[in-house]
Please model this.
Amino acid sequence: MPNLLGELSEDFTDEAGTPLAVTVSGAQCHNMKMAGPTLQALPADRPWPTKKAPQHLPANNAYSYAQVEALVGAWGYTAYIRSRGEETAARACVPGYRARQWVVERTQSWMNRFRKLLIRLEQKVENYLALLHLACAYLTASIPGISG
Model:
């Protein structure tokens, strides 16, 4: 892979904030184009969603395109795309409302605490992706209830 002049890492988390998949692209690549590769990067099979237990995919407004919603639907997820502030307003109005977007943002914030990932000095994309996977493994082991 060629050197990137800037990078954008996309991650996919579960409802607890556990990172499940991560991909890297150039900074000039739009988030919408990385939805497919990020879904394909899932390492394990998952149970197929049912009517009683749908599987939501929380995403920010950068993914609010018909192509992304069709792709997410083809993978069996229910797209949960909210713009900034929309989730906060719904939480104030609807009793018992459960926010989803903050879990993804919290995981991204945890990833930014790794200084080696925050300022990328690696020449090869493969090395940077390996460091991202190492950070995801550390976060998975650190989240309460996952490892005991």
